[in-house]
Amino acid sequence: MNSSHLDKKFDLFHPLIIIVMVILFLLIAMPMWYFYRQLPAPNFDLYLYIGVGLLFFILGILLSNHLMKDRFSNSNIYGSSERSKLNPKKLSLSESYSKNELAIIGFVLLGILLQIINIALLGGIPLFSASLKAKAATKIWLLSYIIFLPSINILLAKYNRKSHYILLLIGLALFVLTGYRTTPIAIMLSSLITLYYTRNLDLKYMILAILAIGAVLLAVGFIAVQAISWQHWHLNPVELVSYRAAFTLNILSSAIANQFATMGSLFYATLTGFFTHTDPRVLVGIATIGRDHSITSTIFGPALLDFGIVGMAIQMFLLGIILKTLHSIQYNNKSIFTAFYGILLAQTIIWIETGPTDIVVWLFYLIGILIIIQSLRGFDYGI
Fold it and tell me: Over 50: is that where the pLDDT of 120 sits?
């Protein structure tokens, strides 16, 4: 059985997967609340607010589905009954490279080179040093990520050549060495989504890819935590993931109780913090637990702290519209549309834990919106 057979029944990476992942995140957290009891169990408000957020996300998907139904008849809320056939032709290493392909490879190599320079300037491997990890997110690191992530996804979406997977693995390894979990997970997950829509992947490869993403998540998180000399953990990698999920959801509970605490300053810090050296997650820590610690608060927390439940509802509604609209467009056109859908969906899945406090992700969302507008106006991206 392969993925093309499964796709006639459901669309694995439809935007509704966000709801599944939120529920999974809750299930992962529950052992720390109700079994190990290492953290206090939340009250009913947590589940109520999450439910409201997901409801408005679904409403955004439904609205996009309604608006796009006349443009793409096979793009309904459940996904197409049959996968598009616009898969890229498989290319051998000996076949000639087009100018566009070489240009995209050049951008991928530039992203890789910048990350090598970044690590070299740090003078060590941040994955194994908490002090180096704190310095790793430099402007070079940011530029490297902004260049590499879209370029590798466009390359995979447009050109079916096995040698491109080598570039993917090299870039992935370099971002793993920085010690951050989100960037390598975003690279792996977005690439998987891109390949899912542009290749006929066997089910076994899908399972192996998902297991690999889970392994990287566990390994990078556990190694990075062990490298922090002032923290001492007695949890294994799986327990640590459960603890982090439960702790993050507890922070969300505190955000629910402290709505409007930041009054928009959190979103402003997200947009400007990289250049002003203000960490928006530190503002989350101050607003929720009264300490200047960098803390995550789920996809719902920052909007609640800034603008209350109305702000959270609007955010989730807009995310639903954007993701579903781009999903409908890429389902029929592939290429750059699939690449950016993979990036946005992967980053949004990551937001389920971290929250939308990353300027680079908002930048990708802005690019995604511009791509949607241009597509609806009939512009053809010939790359």
Answer: yes
